[in-house]
Write a structure and sequence with these properties.
This protein has 843 residues and is mainly α. The chain has 30 helices and six strands.
Length: 843
């Protein structure tokens, strides 16, 4: 407490008289001091007045002349003093108000002074100017007033004018030193202007680092001022010697300030002003750094609460500029040291945001500085609770998606000049390769929190080295956080008992295999029996509300798990094979891509006509509701693959069922009428039965190949990988690879195979639709030559088409199996079994 009591000087005793004269020792000491100064500096205009009091006009050593000649507005010019939090409480009283006294009253006498005295006078002025304070003989450029200067002028720094009466050699040294004052004033203005709240934490950290560097410069000036007042040997040349290394550092800092200044919006009325803005020093430097502003950006990439043209440089954009400066001065060790120090200090708040996101799943970014954008949602607790939230709640500000596919990326028109995104959308190059890992790590932790899981992270204590962006230690921490989030979420998905999950992923995958791969297809046969009449109608005349109860009834009879999540849907993509051919052959240009308006209308009409003529069985499909977070693995894109395989198997089952029904009809009395095998009608009947049998064998072989040679082995391999998978990303990748393998094995991704296969299958399907016609002709009594020729002609159309497409399909399968896909080799053997040579019909 004693230290807090202010010091109060003790009152001198009244009995003690004040000494008004000097002792002999004191007088001798002062006399020797004055004589030494005279010998060193020389006399000034007589140097001694009538009263015998020494008074140097330079005002260096005697107190009163120095105060009279000093600018009273020094602290007003020093904005950092006036704007300081505590000094702002001091009122601007008459003690610091500017007086109407001329600063330049001694300028006329400068030419009359000796060289040594000019050096002493200009040294005093230069020390003030180096602190950003206008001197007597070194003044601001005409038209510049720090009190009325705008932001751009303050950030550019003042220009100084030296008294032309100064000795040329001294003026040359002074002009070499003056850029220090300009750079210092520019840096100080940047620190003051960018320390406001709206400029974000990264700018605040950068200003703090700049303030530390400026403090070293101020300490240097204090040492030089002390040497000026106490060392008789201090000269202007020595001043230049001491400040010369600092000039390079302040020049680098001033370049950074120019690069971080916002771009002045060009005038819309004049294109010449736009071109002139690009030629300013700041514009040239930004163009050299590759940091020109893009002209076309989405609103999501703009900083919040500001227009893009007027928005300041904040967040990741600041770090990108510093990184670009490091690359620009890659051959300068001093520049690398300076910018590396600034980068490390400025990236601390940015790294803390990313660290909290990766280790706790919490994103706090008030000023939109980070690379992740949080969309406004109904629940504001920051936890993801659904598929839509997973996709849209947290995204990257630069517009890129997590998927590595080029189709999932937002297309941007590449400008001629290199550009960067504004604010947080500009991701520093040091973390560009890690941005997807950082995003997914936090999103995974969000999922764990939403499902009631506990996040037990090992990242509790951090040092300054741990939050150095771009360092090996930081990259290691990102990988560790990403791996931890992956493993924890994986244990949640596979059904860890310590976590609360409605069901496990493995059981859901088993149900998908049951419903979409028809591993036990009794429910499908039951459903087709219940909907025989509905399947033959067009898609426009069938309602899903009528089909869903029938599907529920078929599933209830089987007792399959998760049957309440299965829904019947009518696909809007048209026939399966035509749709797949458009996809794999990249010929499915939509109507919007057709140039002519009439062609677009024709394409639209043909599509509507195709939908109206499409039967329900050809567009029938299943949908499956997957609860969150299992939908992260069983996403809509993977469900689409399941639906394609289901429609492929359903169509084969339907054709096989139709051929079996045709076989039952041909066991009737009409086909059993006694006829001699040598008659034409008997031969015709045998040819129909043989063609139907060969078609049925063909369909059964395709089904057997898909089920036993492709789907079942692929499922078993995928099920084994589920036991050894370690991360969610590996699980998702294995799941997609499994489905892609199934699609490729079922010949649904090869245009050549799909074309010949679809023609052969559609020939079989069309053949079954004429079952009643064949039965009618088989029981007809007309056996004339004309009637038999008509029968043979009709049958030969089916036989010729089937033989042609079957042979073409078999040849293409054999070619692909030997060169591209060895998984098709079993199919080659199966098809060769149904290619016997059939004798031609009698003439």
């Amino acid at each position: 407490m004693a230290s807090s009591i202010p010091y109060t000087p003790r009152t001198r005793p009244s009995s003690r008289k004040a000494q008004v004269t000097l002792s002999a020792k004191q007088y001798t000491k002062i006399s020797h001091t004055i004589e030494a100064v005279r010998r060193k500096r020389g006399p000034v205009n007589g140097a001694i007045d009538e009263d015998g009091e020494g008074c140097l006009n330079s005002g260096l050593y005697l107190k009163k002349p120095f105060l009279d000649n000093a600018p009273e507005q020094s602290f007003i010019d020093e904005r950092s003093f006036v704007r300081a939090p505590l000094n702002s409480r001091l009122g601007l009283g008459p003690t610091i108000a500017p007086k109407a006294k001329s600063r330049r009253k001694t300028k006329d006498n400068l030419s009359e002074c000796s060289l040594e005295l000019q050096e002493a006078i200009i040294l005093e002025d230069l020390l003030s100017v180096l602190m950003g304070i206008e001197g007597t003989h070194i003044t601001f450029h005409e038209g510049y007033a720090p009190e009325d200067a705008d932001e751009e002028s303050l950030l550019a720094g003042p220009q100084f004018v030296v008294d032309p009466k100064l000795n040329p050699s001294l003026r040359d040294l002074v002009e070499r030193t003056l850029p220090l004052a300009t750079h210092y004033s520019s840096i100080k203005a940047f620190i003051e202007l960018r320390s406001s709240l709206e400029f974000g934490l990264v700018n605040h950290a950068l200003c703090a680092a700049l303030r530390d560097m400026v403090k070293e410069y101020q300490v240097l000036l204090a040492q030089l001022e002390s040497a000026f007042y106490h060392s008789p040997d201090f000269t202007l040349q020595k001043l230049w010697f001491y400040v010369h290394p600092t000039l390079h550092t302040l020049t680098l800092l001033q370049k950074l300030v120019v690069a971080l200044c916002p771009v002045t919006p060009p005038s819309e009325e004049s294109a010449d002003e736009e071109s002139s803005d690009d030629e300013t020093p700041g514009g040239v430097l930004r163009r050299d750094l590759g940091l020109s502003m893009p002209k076309d950006l989405t609103d999501s990439s703009k900083p919040r609460n500001s227009q893009y043209n007027e928005s300041p440089i904040i967040g990741g954009e600041v770090l990108t500029v510093i990184s670009a400066m490091m690359q620009l001065h890659v051959g300068d060790p001093d520049a690398q040291k300076v910018f590396s120090s600034l980068w490390k200090s400025a990236s601390v708040p940015y790294a803390r945001m990313l660290r909290d996101w990766m280790t706790r799943g919490v994103w706090r970014d008030r000023w939109d500085e980070g690379c992740i954008r949080e969309a406004q949602w109904g629940v504001s607790d920051g936890i993801v609770r659904g598929d839509e939230e997973w996709d849209k709640r947290y995204t990257l500000r630069d517009g890129t998606s997590v998927s590595s596919s080029q189709d999932d990326r937002i297309s941007r028109k590449q400008p001629e000049e290199p550009t960067r995104l504004p604010g947080g959308a500009c991701i520093p190059p040091e973390i560009e390769p890690l941005k997807h890992k950082i995003l997914l790590a936090g999103k995974y932790l969000n999922v764990i929190r939403a499902c009631g899981g506990q996040i037990k992270s090992d990242f509790e204590t951090y040092t300054s080295e741990d939050i150095d962006l771009g360092s090996d230690r930081w990259i290691k921490q990102v990988d560790e956080a990403y791996t931890y989030a992956n493993i924890t979420l994986l244990s949640l998905l596979v059904g860890d008992k310590s976590l609360t999950t409605a069901n496990t992923l493995v059981s859901r995958l088993d149900s998908l295999r049951h419903f979409f791969f028809l591993s036990q297809g009794s429910f499908l046969l039951h459903f087709l029996d219940l909907t025989v009449s509905e399947m033959r109608r067009s898609t426009k005349s069938v309602s899903q509300a009528r089909l869903q109860p029938l599907m529920d009834l078929a599933l209830a009879a089987e007792g399959a798990p998760y049957r309440e999540d299965v829904k019947v849907v009518i696909s809007t993509n048209g026939a399966l094979y035509e749709w797949l051919l458009k996809i794999v052959s990249v010929q499915g240009a939509g109507p919007n891509e057709v140039g002519d308006e009439e062609q677009r209308e024709d394409a639209k009409k043909s599509k509507e006509k195709e939908k109206s003529s499409l039967m329900t069985i050809d567009a029938l499909s299943l949908d499956y509701n997957v609860p969150f977070p299992l939908s992260l693995v069983i996403s809509r894109s993977t469900l689409l693959r399941y639906q394609i395989i289901f429609r492929f198997l359903l169509h084969l089952r339907h054709v096989e069922r139709s051929l079996s029904s045709m076989w039952i009809d041909q066991k009737g009395s009409v086909w059993r009428q006694p006829l001699h095998s040598t008659t034409d009608l008997g031969k015709w009947r045998g040819r129909v039965l043989l063609l139907r049998t060969r078609m049925n064998v063909f369909i059964q072989q395709i089904l057997a190949f898909a089920a036993f040679d492709i789907l079942e082995p692929s499922w078993r391999a995928f099920h084994e990988r589920l036991k050894t998978v370690t991360t969610v990303d590996d699980l998702i990748r294995d799941h997609v690879d499994f489905l892609d393998t199934c699609l490729k094995g079922c010949m649904l991704t090869h245009a050549g195979l799909l074309k010949y296969y679809s023609k052969a299958v559609m020939t079989c399907a069309t053949f079954t639709t004429y079952s009643s016609s064949f039965s009618k002709e088989a029981g007809a009594d007309d056996t004339t030559e004309a009637a038999m020729e008509k029968r043979w002609s009709f049958l030969n159309k089916f036989q010729t088409n089937f033989e042609h497409w079957l042979k073409s399909f078999a040849d293409r399968v054999q070619l692909v199996a030997s060169s591209e896909n060895v998984a098709l080799l079993p199919l080659v053997t199966r098809i060769n079994q149904i290619r016997p040579v059939i004798p031609e019909e009698p003439a």
